[in-house]
Each structure stands twice: as C-alpha cells, then as structure tokens.
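Two quick folds needed for the group meeting slides. Do the first one here.
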Amino acid sequence: MSKIVLYIAQSLDGFIAKPDGNLDWLTSTPPSEQGDYGYTELLNSIGTVIMGRKTYDIIIGFGEEWAYSGKETFVVTNDTNIEIKSPETHILTEDLINFVSGLKAKSEKDIWLMGGGQLIKFFIDNNLLDTMIISIIPKIIGNGIPLFPDHTLETEWKLENVQQFETGLVNLTYIKPR
C-alpha cells in the first residue's frame, strides 16, 4: 500500500506562505551543493499529487511549465467550475476520505500531499497522513499562513531522519507510528 507524504517548506517561524499566499521568501535560500533538498528523490517516489485549490492557483500563476507531468494530480475544491490548465489534473469534490483510502490501496507509488494548510489539517484530523518531510527554511517572515492551522488534531509523530544542508536548510522527516 502506498503512503501519503507531505513534503513542504516552512519558514523558521512556522509559516508556509505570507498572508496573501506569496511564496517569494522561498527563493531566499540558495541552491545547495549537496543537491536539491530531496525534491528529485520525492518526485521519483510518487505517482500522484493532491493539492488544494489555492495551492493549484499559486502554482499555475507561476506561468511555468507544469512540473508534475506524468503524475496524476487531484485538486481538492468545492468549486466544480475551476479551469484546469495542466495535464493529467482532475477536480476532486467527492468524499475525500474514501477517495484517498481507495487511492492508497491501488497506487503503486506514494502520494504527495502538497498543501495547503487546511488540506493538511484535514489529512491529519482524519488519520490519512503517513509521512511528513518538512523543510525548514532559515528565514523568519513574521506573519502568514501556518503549516498547521489552529485546532489541528493532537497527534504523535516519530522523527525518522534529520538532514542538514550547508545553506542552513534542514529537512525533518516524521512518520506516523502505527
């Protein structure tokens, strides 16, 4: 059975985006001589991407080539009228718990939960998330959208790996004990 993996960056003070959703602060950390902070490894391990509507809009707004070609992508939203502008991308409005359970059972590769915060909260609150890889960007942005919104269910996680880069970025990998 595949796993749901959250791979996400946050600021040192715990935010995944500025209050308006802006991600410009992410580019403040230069590339690492040690590699791409695990991004390629993650991309090779997944077959499916799940993201929220706001995350999708931000990625499409970059105006770049779709980075997830070859990966089936699901955009979780209540708006069935959104315009999909990327290949192999579907709107997901149905019962998310049953959909994700079925997807995990039939997928050969892992599933990347990309964000945003409310979707992450839903996955945690419903015991759907298996692994979290949190990249800590060594920058304080002061205010923004938190990685874990208020009232996220209290859960236990086990630290599986710490990877430190010369740029000051740290990847923390947590797994959900079963």
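Then this one, please, same format:
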Amino acid sequence: MTVRVQAEPFDPGGELSGFAQGRSDLGAVVSFTGVVRDDAGTLDRMEIEHYPGMTEKAITAIVAEATSRWALADCLVIHRYGPLKPGDQIMMVATASAHRVAAFEAAEFLMDYLKSRAPFWKKEFAKDGGTDWVAAKVDDEEALERWSK
C-alpha cells in the first residue's frame, strides 16, 4: 500500500503500469485520476494546502479502512498540493484485487473519503483576481452515507 502527497506532477499511465507489474495473482486493477476542473471558464488556478505528516497519516487511515473492508492485494493513493492549473492531474487512486467488485468498490470508497475527509484545503483563484475557499459539498457528504450501511 502506497500513499504519496507531493507537489510534483505524476504520470498516471506510468504509475498504473508499475502498480500491477509482475503480479499474476490479480484479477482486477481499477484506477481513477482526478483533474482540476474549470466549470465556468473563470479559474486561473487552484492552490491546495496541507499539513505534512498529518495528511499522510489521515490518508493512510482511509486506506487501512478500505483494506479492512475489501480483499485488496495493493492500493495506491497519490494526491498533489500546491498551485494547480485547470487540466492538471490532482490525484490518483488505484486498487488491485483478485476480483473486480472489490477493486471497484474499494476505489469508490477511497474516492468518496478522500474527497470529504482527507485534510486538504483548496483555494480557487479566478482570472479576474477573486479568490474563494472551496467549501464541502452536500453531495460529497451524502456519498459517504452508502459506506456506513
């Protein structure tokens, strides 16, 4: 299980290739790469802040929860911080399991919890000079409810 919090860009294809390389016990590898989105065409950049050590510990706990719920052979979480432009990759999750259902469900679980519970603070900088902290969304909180059942 690997958790990386980094400022540097990453190559999702290279990460995924290395993630499952040489494994003959896997029946499924699922990955998701998140990208900085600019819905309105007004975003200049997003800046992501975190507390080193605390953030990695929190994400490691989320990964541990996923591995306790599903039979995962491996798991990878990469999350970037610092300034990011629209179209930049912001994060990646990969899960590997003998069976696809476990890999898909664990990846969805990780995404839901990373979106709502990983300690990152995101601030958007508009092209017109305005700034705004990104607030938690009701939809993201509601997505967590399905995992408590």
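Slide caption for protein two: The chain has a mean pLDDT of 93.
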